[in-house]
Design brief:
With about 525 residues, this protein is α/β, with parallel strands linked by helices. It folds into 3 domains: about 230 residues, FAD/NAD(P)-binding domain, CATH 3.50.50; about 110 residues, no CATH class; about 120 residues, no CATH class. The protein is about 35% helix and about 20% strand. The chain contains 17 helices and 21 strands. The strands form 6 sheets. A 7-stranded mixed β-sheet has the order 8-7-16-17-18-15-19. Strand 2, helix 1 and strand 3 form a beta-alpha-beta unit. Helix 8 crosses helix 9. The longest helix is centred in the N-terminal third of the chain and has 26 residues. The chain is globular and about 65 Å long. The N and C termini lie close together (about 5 Å).
């Protein structure tokens, strides 16, 4: 396979049956807007009443609260997405850089802010844990950047490949950098080379949970996430869900359509090729291609028809990424100087992940709190009620937890916040559990990130855009290049590129490909 750059320009794609996109999550919407901008007829079918998939919002007591991803990184990937769709990110969204990336608290009252300014982070780490740990932070940052720079183009922004294929893309002159990405070393072990203070290992180990994984099982390669965050965290005016609404508007500007409350029950084949879909209502829709933005687990379980089962291997429950219990709260927060992103750590990270690995809700959980109405600097909140989201990691076990267990979990959550000095009064809350996520995303057991990134080969086990069925493509956080909002957007780009390339090879014309690279046969 050859990695080749391509420039984007509008192409005359003959309008016929639509390209059907199953799911209006980030991957599906990215693919849809890019194909519609190329002139393709595009129809998105979404089972929910709004776009975004996991990038959703919940209305609590009249307040619209982000109920999915809350951190926006890799702004350049989204700028390119909007540009390739003939628009501009700034015309649809107002983004502000976060000054404080996150505020962290440990039992006993120790606190640490990580800043967009790395020098300020270094100074804060030195004040918390000493000069040696500040030097360890410098070494950690250098390693995280090196891993990122090795993998950014050849892996994250390119089509799925094998370990040998990745080595070829990186190039024989840089072959030593294959080992430098530390695929065979556990993240927790690698962090121990940089930090002696267990609090700092806990802090930087948390980056593994960004893709639903354990720092005790994930490869040290995931340290690159720290560098991605250091390149910039952005606050979206109006909430993260506005990203999905902006893509909805861009799609409509190119004549693309979305049908909401239109669940797909089956992918239809004709002569061995994806030729359409059947809705749960029984309606059949012909298609010149199908891009599936559902979790690959749903395909493997036959939830989109028997014919589509063979597209991906069935995933073991043990390989699922983490789920969560989440609370979206409208209430009055007092006593702790919240910023936009806040983390309250458990006392024993090893025990917390042992609980999760055993299928238990953690007895001493780490909590993430997003204070949506606060900026990332002052720590001063509204005078009245505000919008909050609290996330607690949970095992991906679907309906395994009883109401009593969830109630106990909620009690532990509020007790932990209270020990940090944070109380939330006059509150109204909505809660989502692994069972709720399984209902929203069938076949996942509630897993929010597809396959866990455990072991050196996990990244290569995610399916790519192309499948074994001609005309059927995959996108979303469950496929290559991985979990997270930017990765899902890149997966949609790769699905669009694959459809365009395959159509060109069978229809005797050559549409210009989407910028960002393509693996060609």
């Amino acid at each position: 396979m050859v990695f080749m750059p391509h420039d984007f320009s509008p192409a005359a794609v003959k309008r016929a049956d639509p390209v059907v996109v199953i799911g209006a999550g980030m991957g599906g919407m990215a693919a849809a807007v890019l194909l519609a901008a190329q002139g393709a007829e595009v129809l998105v079918l979404e089972r929910a009443a709004a776009p975004g998939g996991k990038l959703s919002e919940t209305i609590v007591d009249g307040a619209a609260i982000d109920a999915g991803p809350t951190v926006l990184t890799m702004r350049d990937a989204f700028e390119q997405l909007f540009a390739d769709a003939g628009s501009a990110l700034g015309d649809h969204l107002t983004l502000t850089p976060a000054e404080i990336l996150a505020r962290h608290e440990w039992e006993g009252g120790a606190r640490l802010d990580l800043f967009a300014d790395r020098a300020r982070s270094r100074e804060a780490i030195g004040a918390l844990a000493g000069a040696a740990e500040a030097r360890g932070f410098d070494a950690f940052c250098a390693e995280a950047r090196r891993i990122h720079d090795v993998l950014d183009g050849p892996f994250m922004r390119a089509a799925r490949t094998t370990p040998l294929g990745l080595s070829w893309r990186i190039g024989p002159r840089r072959i030593g950098e294959i080992m430098a990405i530390r695929p065979y070393e556990k993240m927790w072990t690698a962090l121990g080379r940089h930090f002696r203070d267990p609090r700092l290992r806990q802090l930087f180990g948390r980056y593994a949970t960004y893709c639903g994984s354990s720092p005790f099982q994930a490869p040290a390669t995931l340290m690159l996430i720290a560098h991605v965050e250091q390149r910039g965290v952005w606050l979206v005016e109006g909430g993260m869900h506005r990203i999905a609404r902006a893509l909805e508007a861009v799609l409509a500007s190119h004549g693309g359509r979305i049908r909401y409350r239109a669940p797909v029950s089956e992918i239809l084949l004709e002569h061995g090729r994806a030729a359409g879909v059947r809705l749960a209502s029984g309606e059949m829709i012909a298609a010149q291609g199908v891009i599936c933005n559902a979790d690959p687990a749903a395909l493997a379980l036959g939830l989109l028809g028997d014919a589509a089962r063979r597209t991906v291997p069935r995933q073991r429950a043990a390989d699922r990424a983490l789920s969560a219990v989440t609370w979206t709260i409208h209430g009055a927060a007092r006593g702790f100087a919240l910023v936009r992103h806040n983390v309250f750590f458990s006392q024993d990270y090893g025990a917390e992940f042992a609980d999760l690995a055993a299928g238990r809700l953690p007895r001493d959980p780490t909590l993430y709190v997003c204070a949506q109405d606060r900026d990332a600097s002052a720590g001063i909140g509204p005078s009245g009620r505000e919008r909050l989201m609290v996330i607690l990691n949970a095992p991906p076990k679907g309906d395994a937890f009883s109401p009593a267990e969830i109630d106990t979990c909620e009690t532990r959550m509020f007790e932990r916040l209270a020990r940090a000095g944070l109380t939330i009064t006059d509150r109204t809350a909505a809660i989502e559990t692994p069972a709720d996520f399984e209902r929203r995303f069938p076949g996942t057991g509630g897993a929010l990130y597809g396959r866990a990134s455990h072991g050196w080969a996990a990244a290569f086990r995610r399916p790519g855009a192309r499948t074994r069925i001609p005309g059927l493509y995959l996108a979303g956080g469950g496929v290559h290049p991985g979990a997270g909002l930017p990765m899902a957007a890149l997966s949609g780009r790769q699905a669009a590129q694959a459809w365009l390339a395959d159509r060109a090879s069978t229809h005797g014309f050559h549409p210009a490909a989407i910028a960002g690279g393509m693996s060609t046969r």
